[in-house]
Structures are given as C-alpha cells and as structure tokens.
Amino acid sequence: MSFVPLLKEMDLSDTSRLNTLAQKFSTARPFPHLVMDGMFSHALLNEALQEFNLDHVNNINLFQNQLQSKRSTSTKSVMPEAIQRYFDIVNGAPFLRLLTRLTGITNLLPDPYLYGGGMHEVAGQGHFQVHTDFRHHPHTGLENRLVLLTYLNHDWKPEYGGQLELWQNNPPRPVRKIVPQFGSSVLMLQSPDSWHGHPQAVRAGYLRRTLITYFYTAPKIKADRTAQDTIYLTNSRQSTMQMAEILMRNILPYFIIDTAKWIRHRKRRHNFK
C-alpha cells in the first residue's frame, strides 16, 4: 500500500499532474501554497487519528494567552506509533524530492525533532491569531522554507470555526479560508508575507487536530573552500606519488586543481567511448 499516492507520479513519464500542482503552488494568492485532498492514504491518517491523544503523550506544550489557545507536542515528545509513521514518511528523502518538485526549492532538509510542529490540538474556543512563523530554527540556524499541515477532523463544517485563513497585509484581509477537513493537507511557503492563522474560535465541544511539519534549507553563506574538501595527512607509509599529490592539493590554487580534474574526466569519457 502506498501511503503517499502522489509519490507514484514521480516515476511516470507523464508529469502533467505534478506540473499542474507546481503551477498552482507558485501562482496561489496571497502567497504560494497548495491545498491537496488525499495526499496521504486514509488508512494512514485514520490510524493516526485513533492514536491522537495528547493526554497520553509526554512533554506537552500549552499555549494559553490572548493570541493563541492550543496544545501541542514538543521536541522531547514520544509520538504514538501511527503518528510517528506519518512523520517518518514526510521527513524521508522520497517525500523531500516530491516537495522540491512541487515548490522548486532544492536541498530541502527535515527536522525529525519537529520543532514547532508535531501534534497540534485546539479545543472549544481555541484560536490562533494571524501571524507569520519563525524564520530560522532556533537550534540549528536553518532557514524555515515550507510548512505542511495535515488535518484529522472528520465531517468538519465551516460553522464549527477554526478555518485556516490566509491573509494579505496591505490592506489586512483574508484572501482564502480553508476548512480543516479530514485528509486535507496544506503546503505553504514560509516568508515574511506568509500571514496565516485561525482567528475564528473553534466551537465548544469540538477538537481541531492537525499534524504539522516544517522543512528547511541551509543559510546562503560563502563557505571556506577548504571546509568542503577532503583533507589528507601525509605520513611515512605513503608512496612518493601519494605525498606529492597531497602537497599539490595543499599549495596549488583550487581553480588549477578543478581544471585538472575536468581534463582528467574528459579523457576518461573519451577513452570509454
């Protein structure tokens, strides 16, 4: 059974569906996002919902103030088995490649500790005012690029409140409202313009449950070239040729070494032909 049917599209020669989704993401307003029903199999999500009970999870975060009212797991929480299976899938390389295909963002990195993510639950009268998310992971320094939300609320109706609202900021107003219906996933770009929230309180007697994951890229900094290459140590057990090559690597400018590698690669390709 495929828990992510869309992954099958990555292996097909006809990528028209993925092209359509990528186009929808890039052109969505008020900022790039994608709403997908059935991104994950109902079997996977139903098992996750059956085990979704924050009263039985360790290290729960409680947010109770004028701007938000909710509970969530923390980076130290031990997830129930079925829910951990969901997060293992979305943090795996095949899913990251799918996200790159949909968004154009390369070299995406997961956060298996789920800072800011995990299991989120909003009870009756709970809310989260319109906001943008953190720009960098506080522990790793990685840049926050995407967030994925998957809802686990069967038969949710708009009148129950808790709709996800995507806002523009000039003038401030909601542009899109998304009902947190079971099996619906929302992929959103993270930027200073990605205003979102669910300011309308959830109706008393209802629980709004969401699985949330963030995805990152490394900051764009100019790294020292020596930190990118393998460094060799000369010793008496090496041949003269080995020590000579190590010496050249240490003293020659990198553009000369790169040129030599390119010439050697070209010769190998020619000889192979």
The helix/strand class is: alpha+beta
- The helix content, as a percent range, equals 25-40%
Strand order of the largest sheet: 1-9-6-11-4-3-2
Outline the low-pLDDT stretches.
none
**Termini Cα gap:** 43 Å
What CATH calls the topology of the largest domain is: Jelly Rolls
Radius of gyration: 24 Å
Describe the structure.
- The protein is of the alpha+beta class and 273 residues long.
- It is built from 6 helices and 11 strands.
- Helix 2 (42-50) crosses helix 3.
- The mean pLDDT is 89.
Topology at a glance:
Blueprint: H1 16-27, E1 33-37, H2 42-50, E2 60-64, E3 69-73, H3 81-90, H4 93-103, E4 118-122, E5 128-131, E6 143-151, E7 164-169, E8 172-178, E9 184-189, E10 195-198, E11 208-217, H5 240-251, H6 254-272
